[in-house]
Specification:
It contains three helices and ten strands, in the order ααβββαβββββββ. By secondary structure, it is of the alpha+beta class. It has two domains: 30 residues; 134 residues, Rieske [2Fe-2S] iron-sulphur domain (Rieske Iron-sulfur Protein, 3-layer Sandwich), CATH 2.102.10.10.
Length: 192
């Protein structure tokens, strides 16, 4: 006959030391979670990688421009990231005109020296989009062009920029934006 367990005779079960070992259970749980994490990351990688820009976008993110053909006093327009850039080979008159403007007369005070690279003062590179409503200003126009006509005029609403691309008159709140650029040589610049 089988004996029922009582307080005096507790029931006995067959156990192995491994089934009650908490460190083994923790190890198995960490291993399973780690493998699940690696699997999830492997499955998500193609989706995440598809968000990177394609080669065409990366190629357009920076451009190199040869400055050698640009004559003194000439402004050229190039397309960069879908917007026009003005690159002006400023005359000594443009530079002099820009540097003699008192900061108190400027709506968005910024020195001419801060808008050009040291040693390359003759080159002014700026985004050719009016900071008022996004129109494209005309080069060599307006009241603040100096004797060499290096200023800019936005005919849509009358904003006028000086020979350094700084707003001088009209509704535009800011100067024309100077993009990030660096000179690779004296006659070659990388923009972006």
């Amino acid at each position: 006959m089988s004996q029922k367990p009582t307080a005096a005779t507790p029931a006995t079960t067959h156990t192995t030391p491994e089934s009650h070992d908490p460190s083994r259970r923790d190890f198995m749980m960490l291993t399973a979670c780690g493998l699940a994490g690696v699997g999830a990351a492997s499955a998500a990688w193609p989706f995440i990688n598809s968000m990177n820009p394609d080669a065409g976008v990366l190629a357009a993110s920076s451009i190199e421009v040869d400055l050698a053909p640009i004559q003194v006093g000439q402004t050229i327009k190039v397309k960069w990231r879908g917007v026009p850039l003005f690159i002006r080979h400023r005359t000594p008159g443009d530079i002099e005109e820009a540097r003699k403007v008192p900061m108190g007369e400027l709506k968005d005070p910024e020195t001419d020296e801060a808008r050009v690279k040291k040693g390359h003062d003759q080159w002014l590179i700026m985004v050719g989009v009016c900071t008022h409503l996004g129109c494209i200003p005309l080069t060599g126009e307006g009241e603040f062009g100096g004797s060499d006509k290096g200023g800019l005029f936005c005919p849509c609403h009358g904003s006028q920029y000086d020979t350094s691309g700084r707003i001088r008159k009209g509704p535009a709140p800011k100067n024309l934006t100077v993009p990030q650029y660096s000179f690779l040589t004296d006659s070659r610049v990388k923009i972006g």
